[in-house]
Fold each of these.
Amino acid sequence: MAKKPIAWIVDSTAYIPKELQENPDFFSIPLNIHFGEDQYIDGIDLTAEELYTKIRNADQFPKTSQPSAGEFGEKYKIIAEDYEEAFAVHLSSKMSGTLDSSMGGAEIAGFPITFVDSLQLSYGITGLLQHGMEMHKNGATVAEIKVELDQMVGSCNTYILMGNLEQLYKGGRMSAAQFYLGSLLKVKPIVHINASGELEPIAKVRSEKRAMQYLIDKVIEAHKNGIHKIYLMQGNVIEQANQLKKLIQEQVPGMEVEIGEMSSVLAVHAGEGTLAVLWYEK
């Protein structure tokens, strides 16, 4: 039987909407979550909701890891049985070794894969892959897709309202003093992903209402620059996400807002209660 021309690959930190889930040529390679000696596969052994419950009750804070090059290689050998080549978009190489492991896996499998370092997370990965798939559908070559997506890298705007301060403290991403003061003053830290693919603090806002308005103001600015659709990722706070969507659409009439859930791996690092808005510049 003839092989299909191309498979499309991401890792499980990507936002995966229904249309990708239902695409037979799409593959998501899951990362791992560790609670002490116990290992779980992101999205398979552990849902995001189950993760939050475990974090609240666990003595040890979880850690995350990417599959080894050998594990990637085994997955790619299976995909190679049905496809001539693949195109993979991964989370920022500045935040994880996933891209390196994936490239190593392709070499082990002897499977031709074209790679793009998204320098992003979540929809920042998805948006690139979907654009590449659309280009391929319209007749573009893999080389042409690679050039265009590399040019798009760095043009995704991602603003993240970090969630549970206690989770950030337990995870070692906040000192005891920062946690105490932040809780006392009800500070809401906001970070973005810079053009180099690194998380960068940009604001500390008092109160959730002001923090949400900070995100809305960024969306208003984007709308003035011709953006008509954004993505809103949430960490087990769907009610707040729906409220933020309502506020955005009240202040930016006509703005389309798609809400999605953060993956379990991202939930470990960002914290329960996290909200993020993302879009690609035109």
Note: DSSP finds eleven helices and 13 strands in the chain.
Amino acid sequence: MKKALVLGASGGFGHYMAAALLEAGWHVVTLCRGGQTSLAPELRGKVDCLQGDAKNTAAVIKAALGCSILVYGVNPPYHKWRRDSLSLLSVSVDICREQGLKMVFPGNVYNFDPAKTPHVDENTAFNPRTEKGRMRVEMESHIREAVNVSNMTALIIRCGDYIGKYAPSTWLSELLSEQQGNIQIQCPDKKETKHSFAYLPNVASSAVALLDTELGDFETFHFAGYEFSMSELATEIKKKTGKPVITKNFPWLVIRLFSLLMPKLKGVIELRYLWQQPMSLSGKKLEGYLGADAKKQTPLFEALTESDLI
């Protein structure tokens, strides 16, 4: 049986990758600081949960024994990215190098500036606009460099903002709410401006399907996902639920004031630019590898309800 180590299985990408790997018949191992109870109920008892932490080299080495892939779903809080992101990743990269593992890594759109590149594919040059974007470029470069000098291989799957029941603190979970029978949507910018989203079960199933294809040593794929505006979202929700939908402006000024006391909110402010211009991801390369399966996508409203957003 194929065996995979999933780090960050209590988070969004890690959880759905673990679930998709199990569905495909993989034996899944993860590190859990809090034991099985730190995992979602759907994973408990189905994965081997070893005590440990992703920053502990010895624990990761032990967990990776016998594995052929390492799914990297570790994501420090925004305000700790500069301190922790590269050092945490380096632990896993070093182990992948030593054991010849394939790393599956979740790319995001921070690497790009939508004002300069509103449509991106796998060949679009990185042009980060923020410190977080530069850190993500640095992380992906670190992975590529390790692949170039070792037997390690890597698969990066890039997508927009997450949608998923087990994805903590997503944008839509903050923007959508229900009050007194009304659905309320907060708009981070003009309500007609489109934004890219991805339903994590679809992303994970595509990533796992790619593992059964013939890949190069270092491959990046873009997952197109959904692209919609808050105005289009309001129309869809009203059509499907029949409930009144109210749109209002996102309280950026309040967030800015609270960021003086809560450092993690500074990271939210830093990413505001991604809401001011649309940016779409091309899924043509993924379609070339997976064919019609790459185009299969959970309908948006179904994704929202399954994620407990509606």
Note: The domain at 3-163+198-226+278-297 is CATH 3.40.50.720 (Rossmann fold).
Amino acid sequence: MSQPSPELEGLPSWKLRLLERIQNTAADHTRVLRQGYPIYQPHYGTGEIPIQTWRTHLRALDADRSEIELHAAAVGLSDSAITAARAAGQRGQRWGDSVHSPPTMRRGEDPVRAHMVEGIAADIWQLEHMAAISVEHRLRGLDDTVTDDPAAREQFDRNMAALWTRANETAHAIELSAEERAQLWDRDDAGWLKLVSVTVRGYDDTALLERWRTYAWRGIEHDVRRARATLGRRPVAFPIHVCSYWWRAGSRTLQASAETRTVRPYSPVRP
């Protein structure tokens, strides 16, 4: 960023880290674009593999940045802050290269705890995104396209439950404050409308189905189990209705907004 931004003052570290990741991913894209171009060798012939590898790398970085920007917008970071971080990265600047980049770690903040808070924020984002995707998937009638794959539908739900368990246990382990909890998961109706407007409302059916299947990947649950094992804390019991909060909150907002669209009604099946 070229100058200090008052709107970044007071932001929690995990939100600043989103801006840092946007800028650094954009900077990586710029570096690969300008310096990573493959050198042609006569024995390559047409040389399809090296040039396509280069292009694939660029597309992957661009996709990564776009996903981080979705997350940032959905948690309330301003368009101007997101755009400034991206633009700085596209100029080749990494976060911290300028004296005007605010530190992502607050004075006196424990770096290990900050990392764990960032992990909780990532899990909550996945839960909220999955809830919106799940409801939109039903609203568009796309559930009928996966009736022959009940294991995937069950795994999607298991992944949501696993993510909430990890977020819940980590929050207990580091003793999140009331303010931190509010910042991380107290999303009101306006917040849900913001989330769906920057995510599922922009997905066509193919993109929505791709994302639904991505979140139905069994590896998500596997990763959660490994992380919980390293946490080394006795699992915290929680009632199943806690996890269903994400479906209820997402479905309420999506159902309300669906009244303005030509879609079949959605009837929640979860408690």
Note: Residues 111-139 form the longest helix (29 residues).
